[in-house]
């Protein structure tokens, strides 16, 4: 960005998780753990249960409150602190919807129609899906920019949406002669363990929607279930563990298990293979199960404790919504002035 358009406000992180299905190991390593690391690194962060995104496709209305609390419980159990970070539910802060409509009038159809996730989800029935599914990335831009967030921890599948947010911020600033008002948010590249694959197919991302529960480790799984799933995890017929990282090439399932071990133990792939290279899976898988249980058991226990007290979750989310509202309202007040709305004063 040029000096004329550069944003000079404070650095701030925003990210959200949809309340759909059970959270799993991939969600934890790819998102929740990263959130906690950013928090402990001193970042000002807003972490949101994005329930407005959850309604872009058919869903069970009666399940949504419980699923929302479960995401919040996972955030809290993983180590996000209401004192250090802002934890809230998207729909409880009006700025998201208001700014999304404004951005709908700034973004261009051609930008949104190029989004690959819409093409993937809409498929051949793209003309029959909800308008919300098409506008989903514009709402994401509003989620981020309602707080003038400068950084977003993203995976590969979200980079295109972040680029759209940057384009919308830039166009708003130019169209309304407000140089530097909105930052052009940058990606925070995730480290090891960011992309965890299915335990049944190392070429597919671990997913809440996979019909096989054996494909993932859920955060609510107990120790015996975790050990059983790792024991049944697919490897290959090429023999023992490779002796070095080069030997992981062409062995996606083995590479995935090594990645999981490293992410949970804080080791590199090289260090994992220094210990287990050349050994059989009969030695490696039990060790992986022990590491997974030791790391996840306290989180699972804390999640269940929070879920047993929905009133406390609701209290914390309400407090977080108040903090988010206080952060977004000055931004929206200025947006209204920029747009010329008569009630902006």
Q: Given the C-alpha coordinates, what overall shape results?
A: globular
Q: What is the H/E string? A: EHEHHEHHHHEHEHHHHH
Q: Give the class from helix and strand content and strand pairing.
A: mainly alpha
Q: Largest sheet at a glance?
A: 3 strands, parallel
Write structural notes for this entry:
The structure is a single chain. With 345 residues, the protein is mostly helical. Helices cover 52% and strands 6% of the residues. It has 13 helices and five strands. The strands form two sheets. It has a three-stranded parallel β-sheet. The protein is globular.
What's the short version?
It is built from 13 helices and 5 strands. By secondary structure, it is mostly helical.
Brief descriptors of the model:
345 residues; mainly alpha; three-stranded parallel β-sheet; two-stranded parallel sheet; 13 helices; globular
What is the strand and helix layout of this fold?
Layout: E1 13-17, H1 25-40, E2 45-49, H2 51-54, H3 64-78, E3 86-89, H4 95-104, H5 109-113, H6 116-122, H7 131-145, E4 151-154, H8 159-175, E5 186-189, H9 223-232, H10 252-265, H11 269-276, H12 281-307, H13 310-339
Helix pairs in contact: 3-12, 4-7, 7-8, 9-12, 10-11, 10-12
């Amino acid at each position: 960005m040029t000096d004329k358009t550069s944003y000079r406000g404070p650095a701030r992180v925003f990210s959200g998780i949809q309340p759909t299905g059970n959270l799993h190991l991939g969600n934890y390593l790819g998102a929740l753990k990263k959130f906690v690391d950013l928090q402990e690194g001193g970042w000002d962060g807003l972490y949101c249960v994005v329930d407005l995104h959850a309604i872009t496709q058919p869903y069970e209305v009666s399940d949504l409150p419980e699923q929302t609390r479960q995401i919040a419980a996972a955030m809290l159990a993983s180590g996000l602190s209401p004192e250090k970070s802002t934890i809230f539910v998207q729909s409880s802060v009006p700025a998201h919807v208001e700014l999304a409509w404004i951005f709908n009038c700034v973004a261009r159809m051609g930008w949104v129609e190029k989004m690959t996730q819409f093409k993937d989800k809409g498929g051949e029935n793209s003309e029959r899906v909800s308008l919300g599914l098409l506008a989903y990335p514009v709402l994401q831009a509003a989620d981020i920019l309602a707080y003038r967030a400068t950084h977003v921890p993203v995976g590969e599948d979200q980079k295109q949406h972040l680029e759209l947010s940057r384009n919308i911020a830039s166009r708003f600033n130019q169209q309304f002669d407000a140089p530097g008002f909105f930052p052009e948010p940058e990606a925070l590249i995730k480290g090891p363990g960011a992309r965890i694959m299915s335990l049944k197919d190392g070429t597919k991302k671990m997913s809440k929607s996979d019909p096989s529960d054996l494909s993932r480790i859920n955060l609510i799984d107990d120790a015996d279930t975790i050990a059983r799933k790792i024991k049944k995890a697919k490897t290959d017929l090429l023999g023992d563990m490779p002796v070095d990282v080069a030997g992981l090439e062409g062995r996606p399932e083995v590479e995935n298990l090594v990645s999981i071990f490293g992410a949970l133990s804080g080791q590199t792939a090289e260090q994992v293979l220094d210990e287990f290279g050349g050994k059989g899976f009969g030695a490696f898988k039990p060790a992986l199960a022990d590491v997974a249980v030791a790391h996840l058991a306290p989180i699972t226990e804390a999640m269940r404790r929070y879920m047993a007290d929905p009133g406390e979750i609701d209290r914390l989310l309400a407090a977080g919504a108040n903090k988010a509202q206080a952060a977004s309202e000055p931004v929206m007040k200025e947006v209204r002035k920029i747009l010329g709305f008569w009630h902006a004063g």
